[in-house]
Design goal:
There is one protein chain. The chain is built from 13 helices and twelve strands. The radius of gyration is 20 Å and the shape is globular. It is of the alpha/beta class. The chain has two domains: 122 residues, Rossmann fold; 192 residues, Rossmann fold (3-Layer(aba) Sandwich). Nicotinamide-adenine-dinucleotide binds next to helix 5 and helix 6.
Length: 366
């Protein structure tokens, strides 16, 4: 399939191929949909084996960003970039500055930040050439580590799930199995303990396990045992594709709600959870706290505002559950429907008021 045919299939507006031989830059920027606002999405650096593989990844990831931003109620579209290269060997100031110039040339249609293989130092080099980056260090007006905000958002989502499934307002006395005790998982476990929840955790990294055991005093199980734990809620905060043919039949959980991206191995696993009566909080709705944090950074960072906006995840999930209940469809389909309706509504508004600016950012020189 040609790149244009692939763009058509995924519904992209624009894909930009960038190269600079002198600095070894080979990158692709994908702008999926800017109906709601500028396309925002991180830049990933990865040693893709082929150009096709890189293109497919950037198309898939940028489309997912459109859905995540729309579900969070933000005035942002979806985009993503990939740099083809090995983050351990191929990084240089020149490479990131050259890439930054490509981002600048899009004049704000695309705003980028960190993703796999990219860290805050690389972002600082991009920032030398373009204002259209976020995820800067706090010293440059950035919001810092988004994980605590993501964890706070997951907690709001858990409250919506418990209200929907168990008819309760409080998490007190419930049990939650947390998979992955990294940036988000550790923060989430700490917040859950404050809420009076019994937390059972796991991680493949012995250091993470030891930290959680000694600082949070939570119960620990082996990584493979987490799916069999007799807890009310499962919170995946490690990898994607953990909801699959091997894990779902083992689960006794009533609710699945966590931060990991792409939790369903395939859509049919979302259908299976619905059939079994397990309430699944669609990942891109519940884990939007990090994205909201970046959004707030674009307008001048304020942690209080980020947390206030992140509370909205509770209501966003309630809306998803309403659609799912009303139409008897799995929650992941209900979330997609919510997003598609919101984009269609804004598109109609824009066509009614041609020329009017519906969304606006205050771009201040930082
Ligand atoms: P992290 O790398 O800090 O933590 C992930 C943890 O999972 C690590 O400690 C790792 O050892 C552990 N892990 C990996 N495989 C495991 C397994 N099989 N069993 C148990 N533990 C395992 O990452 P993070 O920032 O905490 O993010 C966690 C997840 O949430 C990721 O999927 C990420 O994409 C998603 N997410 C994160 C944010 C954010 O703000 N950091 C925002 C949205 C989504």
């Amino acid at each position: 399939m040609t790149p244009l045919a692939k763009m058509e299939e995924y519904g992209h507006e624009e894909v930009i191929f960038c190269q600079n031989k002198d600095v070894g830059l080979r990158a692709i920027i994908a702008i999926h949909d800017t109906t709601l606002g500028p396309a925002l999405g991180g830049t990933r650096m990865w040693p893709y084996k082929t150009e096709e593989e890189a293109l497919l990844d950037v198309l898939r990831l940028s489309r997912a960003m459109t859905y995540k931003a729309a579900a969070a109620g933000l005035n942002l579209g979806g985009g993503k970039a990939v740099i083809i290269g090995d983050p351990k060997k191929d990084k240089s100031e020149a490479l990131f500055r050259a890439f930054g110039r490509f981002v600048e040339s899009l004049k704000g249609r695309f705003i980028t930040g960190e993703d796999v293989g990219i860290d805050v130092n690389d972002i600082e080099y991009m920032y030398m050439e373009t204002r259209y980056v976020s995820g800067l260090s706090p010293a440059h007006g950035g919001g810092g580590d988004p994980a605590p905000v993501t964890a706070f958002g997951v907690l709001q989502g858990l409250q919506a799930c418990v209200q929907e499934k168990l008819g309760r307002d409080s998490l007190k006395g419930l049990s939650v199995a947390v998979q992955g005790l990294g940036h988000v998982g550790f923060n989430l476990a700490a917040r859950l303990i404050e809420e009076g929840v019994h937390v059972i955790g796991t991680d493949i990294d012995p250091e993470k396990v030891e930290r959680a055991r000694s600082e949070l005093k939570i119960e620990i199980v082996n990584p493979e045992e987490i799916y069999d734990v007799d807890a009310d809620i499962f919170a995946p905060c490690a990898l994607g594709a953990v909801l699959n043919d091997h894990t779902i039949p083992r689960m006794k959980f009533k609710i699945i709600a966590g931060a990991a991206n792409n939790q369903l191995e395939e859509d049919r696993h979302g259908v299976e959870l619905h059939r079994r009566g397990i309430l699944y909080a669609p990942d891109y709705v519940i884990n939007a706290g990090g994205l909201i944090n970046v959004y707030v950074e674009l307008e001048g960072y304020d942690r209080e505002r980020a947390l206030r906006m992140t509370r909205g995840i509770y209501y966003n999930l309630r809306r998803v559950f309403d659609i799912s209940r009303r139409e008897n469809i799995p929650t992941f389909q209900a979330a997609d429907r919510l997003v598609e309706e919101r984009i269609a509504m804004v598109r109609r508004l824009k066509s009614m008021y041609t020329g009017q600016v519906v969304h606006r950012f205050r771009w201040e020189m930082r």
